[in-house]
Amino acid sequence: MNVLLVCYAGMSTSIMMKKMEEYAKTKDIELNINAVPLSELPQFVDENTSIVILGPQIRFSAKEVEKTLEGKIPYMVIETRDYGMVRGNLVLEQAIKKIESFHA
């Protein structure tokens, strides 16, 4: 599973990224996750990207991200509460469900 975790500058998501990685290890989920700034998303997204996850602070950019992904890759926005409480387990589970429903 290849995840792009996107925030405004690519820095504030590092704790969330670590929590998601820790949870993935406990569930034997193969996870490759990168935190990237919104401005660089087009340079990082490719055909191997499983999902793009936006931090809640950039939810206003969802339409721009949707256009960038051209309907080929699912995306989601982390709920503010889950982000603030760093619930990496919930975010990863939601991402898995989003990917499954996208490809159903």
Q: How would a textbook summarize the main sheet? A: 4 strands, parallel
Q: What's the SSE pattern?
A: EHEHEHEHH
Portion of residues within helices = 40-55%
Q: What distance separates the N and C termini?
A: 16 Å
Average residue pLDDT? 95
What coarse outline follows from CA principal-axis ratios?
globular
Indicate the low-confidence ranges by residue numbers. Answer: none
How many helices in DSSP terms?
5
Counted beta strands: 4
Spatial arrangement of strands, main beta sheet: 2-1-3-4
Oligomer type: single chain
Structural class: alpha/beta
Q: Beta fraction of the residues? A: 15-25%
Q: What's the Cα radius of gyration?
A: 12 Å
Walk me through the structure.
The protein has 104 residues and is α/β, with parallel strands linked by helices. Helices cover 43% and strands 18% of the residues. The protein has a 4-stranded parallel sheet, sandwiched between helices. Strand 3, helix 3 and strand 4 (75-77) form a beta-alpha-beta unit. The longest helix has 15 residues, at 88-102. It is globular, with a radius of gyration of 12 Å.
